[in-house]
Amino acid sequence: MATYAVQAPVHRPASAITLQAPGGTTGDLAPTGPGLALLVGNGATPTTVTLAVPTVDGMTVTFPAITIAASSIYLIPLPSTVYGQGTVAVTYANVTTLTGTGLSGVAVVTTP
Questions:
Q1: Domain presence at residue 43
Q2: How many structural domains does the chain have?
Q3: What is the rounded CA–CA span in Å between residue 93 and residue 37?
Q4: CB 65 within 8 A of CB 2
Q5: Domain-embedded: residue 59
Q6: Distance of CA 111 to CAs 31, 48, 68, 70, 90, Å?
Q7: Integer CA distances (angstroms), 64 to 2, 26, 37, 91, in order
Q8: Do residues 30 and 108 lie in contact, with contact meaning Cβ atoms separated by under 8 Å?
Q9: Predicted pLDDT at 111
Q10: What pLDDT is recorded for position 10?
Q11: Alpha-carbon distances of 46 from 6, 30, 70, 103, rounded to whole Å
Q12: CATH number for the domain including 73?
């Protein structure tokens, strides 16, 4: 289980974003809020990412899993108006190619 730290890359000079391997297929937490997004850099095997949505007025809301294609990079917005204040649970179908090396792994970043 890992709780991702928010990385805020600066405009000038540009700064690197450090990707990390997920703590496993379940149990990771990503901070939510305005301008925050989950950056997923995937390797050679497709995977899916599922974000837990809080109940709304006692009703359970389910979002479909996000399919992450092989050898691709996705930026998934994490607004607190959708995922609640604080953190959202992140589940991965497969973590074998989210290694935290090169362009493979995950990070929470600020977006403009």
A1: yes
A2: 1
A3: 19
A4: no
A5: yes
A6: 13, 22, 20, 24, 19
A7: 23, 16, 17, 12
A8: yes
A9: 87
A10: 81
A11: 25, 21, 4, 15
A12: 2.60.290
Do the Cβ atoms of 35 and 112 come closer than 8 Å?
A: yes
pLDDT of residue 23: 94
Instruction: Let me know if residue 69 belongs to a domain.
Output: yes
In a domain? residue 1: no
Q: What is the mean pLDDT of each run of 10 residues along the chain (112 residues)?
A: 91 86 96 97 96 88 93 96 95 95 95 82
Query: What domain range is 40 assigned to?
Result: 6-110
What pLDDT is attached to residue 57?
A: 87
Count the alpha carbons within 13 Å of 57 in the hemisphere toward its beta carbon: 0
100 vs 17, 61, 96, 112, CA distance in Å?
11, 31, 10, 24
